[in-house]
Amino acid sequence: MIPSGPGERMKLLRYRRLLFGFLVASLGVFGQAQDQPRQQHVGRVLDWSYHHLVLSGGLPAADLDVAKAEPRILFRLAERNLPRAAGRPGINQNRGERGPSLPFRPRKGGVKIDWSVPLGSGIVAPNMYPAKYSFDINAAPSCTNDYVVFGLNVAGSAGQANLLALNQLYRGTGGLCGTGAASVNWAYNGSTAGGAVRTSPVISLDGTKIAYVESAAGSTVFHILTWKAAEGTSATAAVTPTLNGACNATSSCLKSVTFSSTATATLASPWVDYATDKAFVGSDDGNIYRLSCVFNCALNAQPTVDWTFSLPVAGTGGSAAIPNGPVYDSQTGHLVVGDQLGELWTINASGASPGLFAGPVMIGGGSCTTAHPPGRTGTSPPAANCTANGGSFGIPDSVILDGSAGKVFAFSGNDGTAGASAVVAQLNENLTGLVRVHVGLGSVGSTIANWNIHTGAFDNTYFGATPNTGHLFVCGTGAADTQPTHYWIGFAAYPTMDSTTSGFLLRTAVNNLPCAPYTELFNPNITLAGGAGHHDLLVSGLVGGNPNGFVITNDISTGAIITGQAVSVAYPGGVSGIVVDNVSTAAQASSVYFSTQGVVTVGTCNSRCAVKLTQLGLN
């Protein structure tokens, strides 16, 4: 956001002062609500949910009263609008050319890997995320107190953690925290039912607790872990936390509630509403749950299930409507969730009992309808049961909710359109006003069964004062093949998305090579190869075997993928979802974090690994 004159600059300064006051006051209130001593710092959480709640239009368009109730919005406003001064601590925060071809060419010469830490036999599950906690956004990055937590898709035991945290993050050549690898802050066997952590964890605002879901063979358990440093020394030397009932004020503590005794959970990461201390979760049999007593529970009290809502899917048999992670709008009380039949739903979720607000609307479906979803039986007459035209017709990733525009964005690999089935959909929260943009061939017909389209990301301009000049970036396929391809979509009639793409660029000429979700970061303290004003990075991965798995950064400072500027590191098997951290000027303190998707030998990693790379240069 660039003020146009003295009056605008003064207005922006007033907004910034007001925002800073709101930030400190609001996060202080949240800290008190968690029965902790009043904190003298303002921490920052960056987890999976942060990717799915955005705010377009810049600070003048923001409703600070809404932001006060939703720290994800508050953090987004802070990262884009509070002053960022090089050379002093300041805010410790995150923050092309068009053409049909020119794939990236990996820059391998001289690449050094910052650090990696072995994860034993587990990884962060495909398209899921680690979570990052920064202790104080108004101070320099902290070697001791900042940490990243990894939920691992393996059953926990004494010889294998399924929840592990690292600190001393900012190590590397000349690093703020020294050289070598990060340290294991703690490592737990967080299982009570012999299950794995298949979705993304969530961190409390004071950083002392972790919410996560354990998926067992036929049940699903919601856990709240109060961690204690130095319990567990590595991924293969884990401890069991103190179980609820035996906890005290200085111990670790694991609170648990089994919310489904008949189904597991593979896609639905928990969404925590910090203002009400409630969580929303889902199970693979098509049920959505609200739970109370999340981070504010009294000592040795357990979380409880408030209610269960079954997605009212047409038909009496066939495939279940496996939900993705629900996204909650605290302003309206609506919960937006997609399923793996390709449907989108909005649920009234704030009251004592749930109800259907809107939907379903078919986004994917492989040519099927909500009256006859793919694979469901018992839906005829009048029409016959529907078999999808091809695979990957679900909505595997959670929607993106633009809290200022009131728009929902969903992604699917197959809406059944011949020749162009990969789709990005924009709707209002009541699921009207559908705009559908196709991003390649996708999975229609028999081309490929597993080409899912994953979460896209907006450029920095979309978050500024002129969002009509911003873009949404997403990975689709080629127009006539399944080669991974960047697409970007404009907003000339903001907040409505354009009905066609603005440009595209082939990522690499390899068929059937899926993409990991996109992550965007804007760092004014780094300058990309494009020169002055080039600070906006798109970070993503390709998920495939040797030699096709990569983590990649692209310069999107011009509102397009700038050719010739891609930097990449090969990770056979690919990478998980990616989180980023700071815009610090300290060495090794502006980084990206992820897990490999298999055993690799790259840099210091000779295993399944948690990895840190610098934002600039991935070295």
Report what the structure shows.
The chain is mostly beta strands and 619 residues long. It is 7% helix and 29% strand. The chain has three helices and 38 strands. The strands form ten sheets. A five-stranded antiparallel sheet has the order 1-4-5-6-7, with no helix packed on it. Strands 2-22-23-24-25 form a five-stranded mixed sheet. Helix 1 (6-33) runs antiparallel to helix 3 (71-81). The longest helix is centred in the N-terminal third of the chain and has 28 residues, at 6-33. The two termini are 30 Å apart.
Structure keywords:
619 residues; mainly beta; five-stranded antiparallel sheet; five-stranded mixed sheet; 3 helices; 38 strands; 7% helix
